[in-house]
Amino acid sequence: MAKIAFYEDRDFRGKLYDCKGDSADLQGFIRRCNSVKVDGGWWVLYERDNYSGYQYVVGPGEYSDYRRWMGFNDCVRSCRTIRNAQGLYKLKLFDRPNFAGQSWELTENTKSIQEKWVRQEVQSCKVLEGSWIFFEHPNFCGRQYLLEKGEYRHHSEWGAAKPTVGSARIILEL
């Protein structure tokens, strides 16, 4: 069962909001978010309402400060559970929009896309199995982008302003 608790202050203090499902607007429940406890499932937190802005993917555990989930600030305005987070994992990257150009398949976590694939950009991709997180930089750092099973014809479809992908991680249900 998916469940997440948002706290306005660090170290799980201040006003609390328990959430058990997708929420397009958290502002009616909390003004800011400085810590989170995930009691079930995997979640994507968004900086703005209606599932937009920076994305932060969190799994089961405790995050006593927004920097623990690689947050840029204490602004979390919407959230949703992640689906397809178990089973097989397969991702196909393309260096051109609309699934054109050179391609490469991933079936495991990759700390550095550029070390294994000479292309500097990922312009489109197909998530064939599972759910994945793209990170802007190598070693699973920087902005995060959730990719669930489906086709992404252009990097803007997964929320990126640029086609830079430094690393990719599978979302595993623990």
Automatic annotation (TrEMBL):
Keyword check for Repeat: yes
Q: Where is the Beta/gamma crystallin 'Greek key' domain?
A: 41-83, 89-129, 130-172
Q: Give one Pfam hit by family name.
A: Crystall
Keyword set includes Repeat: yes
Its source organism is Gasterosteus aculeatus aculeatus
Q: Which InterPro entries match?
A: Beta/Gamma-Crystallin, Beta/gamma_crystallin, G_crystallin-like
- PANTHER family listed in its UniProt record: BETA/GAMMA CRYSTALLIN (PTHR11818), CRYSTALLIN, GAMMA MX,-LIKE 2-RELATED (PTHR11818:SF126)
Give the protein's biological function: Crystallins are the dominant structural components of the vertebrate eye lens.
Tell me where the transmembrane regions lie: none
Q: What Gene Ontology terms for biological process does this UniProt record contain?
A: lens development in camera-type eye; visual perception
Molecular function per GO: structural constituent of eye lens
Key words, A-Z: Eye lens protein, Repeat
- Family classification: Belongs to the beta/gamma-crystallin family.
Task: Give the top-rank taxon of the lineage listed in the UniProt record for this protein.
Answer: Eukaryota
The protein here is known as Crystallin, gamma S4
